[in-house]
Design brief:
With about 400 residues, this protein is mostly helical. It has a single domain (about 1-180, about 195-385), classed as MFS general substrate transporter like domains (Growth Hormone, Chain: A). It is about 80% helix and about 0% strand. It is built from 20 helices and no strands. The two termini are about 20 Å apart.
């Protein structure tokens, strides 16, 4: 039952980070937004989400996951209601910030529970299951949202989701149970909020991992949450329903990839090699999309599906990086990683909005989206080169396994 409630909350979190791509046309028309403003709306969600990660980690270590998940979800409810009734850009920005804050603790709270309750193997399996099932939110924010928007409008659709979010917050408060506090010998020396952050930043083995953490998820979610619908609409002439189907295809591929990485890691035998392989395939997909995606809608659909499937390295990268954290830093460690994941995504959303706005004004859709996708591929390839020098596991004895 606890797992099911966590899945519901994470489905909503995934929905909120991806729904703008499908409603972009109607929302932009209603609120008078250009591409840069639309990019900023998505970026502020990720920025608020990212900024919340360090206090979320501290709260998980000190307060436990029940309150740390349930209370922020109420902010997401308020944000969804505010966006559904917004009359201008400033209100929409505030609404997306509230939604980002509200979703900020869901995944980390689940991973924290799994880390405290299961051995390393079961942690990976449960994390993969949560990530995979959570991508139902990605699916719901594609064709189903497009159909709902055509039927009742984007505002009523979002209001319905706000009600479901309120239900999820209540279920978390009623069902989730906090694990026992960390034992005194494990907690000794944690150093509080800033001390824990300093200890995380001092782990040199993490340094070459962080560029891929910052870029790997960012390029995939930027495509899925923001640019897939404008790309297929403006370059290939897709209708709203067709762009919803394109987003659905990529979302389904991402869900399949989230499930596939756990068995793939066991087959490959190492988290680092698995993450590197998937990231290289994703980079190649974006480079091909930039070079040839304008020539054929079918080819472009295939490439975004490959990018979605191979690009969901989030879980396996987390599995690799988590090896470097001692028990008393589990909460702050995984939320710091999530800060980098989501912070990178937010920055890329903001930058890409400006790139698209300037490109559309100067050159038109086809060269603009080609440059965007080539840039995504190049960024990811550069991060892979740095990641290649990262250690596969900590060298110091006793440097951390999650229990």
């Amino acid at each position: 039952m606890i797992f099911a409630v966590l899945v519901l909350a994470y489905v909503l979190s995934q929905f909120y980070r991806a729904f703008l791509a499908v409603v972009a046309g109607d929302l932009s028309a209603d609120l008078g937004l250009d591409a840069a403003m639309l990019g900023a709306l998505s970026a502020v969600w990720f920025a608020a989400f990212a900024l919340a990660q360090i206090p979320v980690g501290f709260a998980l270590d000190r307060l436990g996951p029940r309150r740390t998940i349930a209370l922020p979800l109420l902010l997401a409810v308020a944000g969804a209601v505010l966006l559904a009734t917004a009359s201008g850009y400033a209100q929409a920005l505030a609404a997306m910030a509230l939604i980002g804050l509200g979703c900020s603790s869901v995944l980390m709270g689940g991973l924290y529970l799994f880390a405290r309750a299961a051995d390393a193997h079961r942690f990976a399996a449960r994390a993969a299951a949560l990530l995979g099932l959570g991508n139902l939110g990605n699916l719901l924010s594609a064709t189903p949202l497009a159909l709902a928007t055509e039927a009742i409008g984007w505002r009523a659709s979002l209001g319905t989701i706000a009600g479901i979010t309120l239900l999820a917050a209540l279920l978390v408060a009623l069902v989730v149970r906090d694990p026992p506090p960390v034992a005194p010998d494990e907690a000794r020396g944690s150093g509080g909020f800033l001390g824990g952050l300093r200890r995380i930043l001092a782990i040199r083995g993490l340094w070459p991992v962080l560029p891929l953490v910052a870029v790997g998820y960012a390029v995939v979610i930027a495509e899925r949450s923001l640019w897939i619908a404008p790309f297929f609409r403006d370059v290939h002439g897709f209708s709203l329903a067709q762009t919803g189907n394109a987003a659905l295809l990529m979302a389904a591929a991402m869900a399949a990839g989230a499930f596939a990485y756990a068995p793939l890691e066991r087959l490959v035998g190492e988290a680092k090699r698995t993450a590197l392989l998937g990231s290289l395939v994703t980079a190649a997909s974006f480079l091909a999309l930039g070079a040839f995606g304008h020539t054929s809608a079918a080819l472009a659909l295939g490439l975004v599906a490959i990018a979605g499937f191979a690009g969901l390295t989030y879980g396996v990268l987390m599995e690799h990086a988590r090896l470097f954290f001692p028990p008393d830093l589990i909460g702050r460690g995984v939320t710091f990683l999530n800060l980098v994941f989501i912070g990178g995504a937010g920055i890329l959303q903001w930058l890409s909005g400006r790139v698209v706005r300037e490109g559309l004004a100067a050159a038109g859709p086809e060269p603009t989206f080609a440059a965007l996708h080539l840039g995504f591929g190049a960024l990811l390839l550069g991060a892979c080169l740095v990641y290649g020098i990262a250690p596969s596991r900590p060298k110091a004895p006793g440097a951390a396994t999650l229990r």
